[in-house]
Amino acid sequence: MSARAFRVQLDLTPPPIVRKISQRSLIFGVVFAIAVAVGVLVSHNGLDEFYQGYLLGYMCWLGVALGSMAILMIRHMTGGGWGTVIRRVLGAAMRTMPLLTILFIPLAVAAAQGHMYPWAMPFESIKDEHIREHLINQRFITQSYLNVTGFIIRAIIYFAIWNVLSILLSKWSKEADSPEGRDNGHRFRMLSAPGLILYAFSITFATIDWAMSLDPTWISTIYGLILLIGELLSAMCFAVVVERILVDYRPMSELLRSDFVLDHGKWMLTFIMLWAYFSFSQWLIIWAGNLPGEISFYLRRIHNGWGYIGLALAAFHFAVPFAMLLSRPFKQNIRKLVWLAIWLMLMCYLDLFWIISASFSVSLSINWAEIVVPIAIGGFWLWAYFRNLASLPLLPAYDPQSAEVLHPSHYIHV
C-alpha cells in the first residue's frame, strides 16, 4: 500500500544529538587544524609531511562520501528496506561533496608546487634513481598524461561527475518529504545505472592520479577496484556507526529492525570478501608475472617493517572480521556490530596508510601529520555530515518504498 495514501504520524525529525555532534565535531576540527598549523611551523619537513598526511586523510573521508553515494545508487537499483532505513544516513555523507571539492585544493597546490608527486618535481630533486630512470625512458608518455594541467583538469571532471550525481539524487529525494511530491523511483533507477558506471571509472582514474602516480614506475589494472571496495566498506561501516548512535532515539528506535541490521552486516561481509579477493588477485598476478615494472610496489611494502602492516591487514582486515561476520546473531545485534564497524574503518585507514605512505618512506615510519591531519579533516567533514543529517527527516516519508520501513501504526488514514 502506498505511503502517499496516509499521513505519517511518526515524527521523523532527527534527534537533537545530531546537531550536538555537529557542533562538537567543528570544535574538534578547529583544534586539530591549529595543531596542524603548529606542526607545519615547528617540524623540519613540516610542509612535505603535511601534504603526505593530507593525502592520506583526504582519501579516507572522500571514500566514505563516495562509497555512501555508490551504496545509495545500489539501493535505488535493487530496492529493499535495508537501504531505505539508512537512505538519509548515506545521503548526508554524499552531500558533503561540495566541501570535499574545496578540500581538494591543497592537493592541487601540492602538485603545482612540486610536492609529493615525482612527475611534478624538478628533475634534480627526485631522489629515487629508479624513478629518475623511468621518467627519462618514458618521458613522452609521462609528460603527456602526468602533468599539473592534466592533473587539475581531470580532477575538475571527477568532481563535476560526483557533484552532479549528488545534486540530482538529493533533489529528487527531498521531493519525497512532501505529499505533493511525485514518485521519483523511475528517475532514481535511470540515473543510478549509468551513475554506478561513472563512479567506477571516475574513482579508478582518480586513484591513479592521486595515489598510484606517487610511484609512476608502477602500474596495476586492479588498483582502482581495491580502493573502490575499500570506499564501499568504509561507507557501510560508517552507516552502521551512525545508526547505532541514532537507535537510542526516536524515530530510528522505531524504524531500525534486526533484519535490516543483518543485511548491513551481510554487506560488510560482502565488501570484506571482495577486498580480499581483489587484493590477493593483484598480489598473485604480479607475483606470477614477476615483471620489474610491477613488483616494485610489493618489494617496498614487504621489507623494512612494511611487511608487518601487510600481515596485519590480512589478519585483521579480512580473516578475523570474516570469521566474526559468519555469525548470524552477531550480524543482527547493532550494539555488537558497531564495534566491528569501527575496527574496520580503522583497518581501511591502515590499508590506505600501507598503500600511500610507503611511497614516501623506505622503512616503516609514521609522522605526526599522518595522524593529526586526518583527524582535523574528519572534524570538519563530520561537522558538515551531521549538519546535513539534521537538515532533513530521517526517512522520505512519502516515498512509496518507505512503506517497507514504516509500521502501519505510524500512519493515520486520510
Residue share in helix:
over 70%
Q: How do the strands line up in the largest sheet?
A: 1-2
Order of helices and strands: EHHHHHHHHHHHHHHHHHHE
Strand content: under 5%
Domain count, please report it. 1
Q: Total number of β-strand segments?
A: 2
State the major sheet: 2 strands, antiparallel
Q: Please compute the radius of gyration using only Cα atoms.
A: 22 Å
How many alpha or pi helices?
18
| Global shape | globular
Going by helix content, strand content and strand pairing, the class is: mainly alpha
Distance between the termini: 14 Å
- Unreliably modeled segments: 1-6
Task: Give the averaged pLDDT, no decimals.
Answer: 91
Structure commentary:
The chain has one domain. It has a two-stranded antiparallel ribbon with strand order 1-2. The protein has 18 helices and two strands. The N terminus is likely disordered. By secondary structure, it is mostly helical.
Nutshell version of this structure?
Helices cover 71% and strands 1% of the residues. It has 414 residues and is an all-alpha fold. It has one domain.
Map the helices and strands.
Blueprint: E1 6-8, H1 17-42, H2 46-78, H3 81-84, H4 87-94, H5 97-103, H6 105-112, H7 129-137, H8 139-145, H9 148-174, H10 185-210, H11 223-246, H12 252-255, H13 258-289, H14 292-301, H15 306-325, H16 328-332, H17 334-356, H18 369-390, E2 411-413
Antiparallel strand pairs: 1-2
